[in-house]
Amino acid sequence: MHELKKTRLPLTHVPAPLTVTFHIVETGVNWIISQKSRDVSSVTGALLRACADGAANHLYNTTAGDRDSFLPDYISGDFDSITTKVKAFYAYKGCKLMETADQDLTDFTKCLAIMLEEIQRRQLQVDAIVTLGGLAGRFDQTMASVETLHHALHMTQLPVLMVQGTSLAYLLRPGSHRLGVNTGLEGDWCSLIPVGGPCQTITTGLKWNLARVNRLCLPVWRRHELEHQEEVDNQVLQFGKLVSTSNAFETVAPGNPRMPVTVTTDQPLLWSMGISKSRE
Predict the structure, then answer these.
(1) Which residue segment(s) compose the domain that 158 sits in?
(2) φ and ψ at 183, to 5 degrees?
(3) Residue 26: which residues within 8 A CB-CB, separation 6 or more?
(4) Which of 33, 67, 154, 248 could form a disulfide with 207 if both were Cys (CB 3.0 to 4.6 A apart)?
């Protein structure tokens, strides 16, 4: 996604009885760079921009020759990663340097907390917070990024999306969701991952949907799991039992629009999908 102002990834969250639709557009996006990302050109139209500690080094290196167009509003963290040179440059340019020494939370989580305070203080009308980076590189840091998404559920009602390369991740709240996947920017894969624990889940619009489970459809040796019920509400996604990785969207006839994906879950559930850099 080279220009967020030209990009629309409609994701509709449906917390009954209210339906809230949001789009990644220039007028309602804040961004955080949490780790190395090649997508910094996507953020020129954001309302509020921030870097988490060492991500400022990457921003500095990536934007050589045009750094003034990509100045963050603030850089936060414990500053154990940002270099002296980079720190001095952004301080000279007037960027706020906000040291957060708390070691119980990641720099990403602390950076997000500051952003939410700034949104409230400035009374900004924000549709989404987009994080560039956090989905590649060290596995432990990727998991830390996902853990921040769990924190975010309790910090804000705003959607917090993570984008890196050709991947997008978004933590679905418990409830029903309607995901628009007909923008031309979607890749060819998607997944639902129960990172925080077991999730009872129903879906539509996927190649392999999760649905209500009929006892008679199970192998004989598993039918006891339904405790003599003919049907249980939802399939359960759980590590060690079932995860929905390497899924895809429901096939449609050529020329027909792709139907939205619907997801109902009783626990937070990580939605991830492929994205392309330009419309097909």
Answers:
(1) 4-165
(2) -90, -15
(3) 4, 5, 45, 46
(4) 248
